[in-house]
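User: Hi! I'm working on a homework problem where we have to compare a predicted structure to a textbook description. Could you give me the structure for the chain below?
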Amino acid sequence: MRRILLRPMCAALAALGAMACGGNKGAQTDAVSDTVSRRYVGTLPAADGPGIVYDLTLVNPAEDSLAGDFRLSMTYLEAENGQDAKFDSEGRWTALRGIPGDSSAVFFQLVETGVRPDTTAFLDLGDSVVLLGAGLQRAQSGLNYTLTLTE
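Assistant: Happy to help. Predicted structure tokens:
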């Protein structure tokens, strides 16, 4: 009975892993440790300035992994007296399935390490990710919240 239940579960996890990894475009493999990293970059809207430059790197322990570590750098353009302000965070990410209105959508949930861990979610579109808001909702403003996978 276990074997019958495990085979479909393994197949489903393998399929989710392939979608979460978005193929090989932009993925870099470390030959020594077999880790894979993907980097997404983009300038997102800011309430009080010209924008926030996001630089997100997802690191997988293996190509088909559904979780790993992340590094996120956010640079608020002209934030303090005309000077940019940069904030860095890191933590763990997990690929999950299902957002409101799309039960098959894959998104990355990022949880920062630290005293007050913050959680952020990005919808995986393969060659890009889109920042999700509260309740895993896409922005209704029409503004661009997309980070693009770099080569």
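For your comparison, note the following. The CA atoms of residues 112 and 118 lie 5 Å apart. The chain has one helix and nine strands. Good luck with the assignment!
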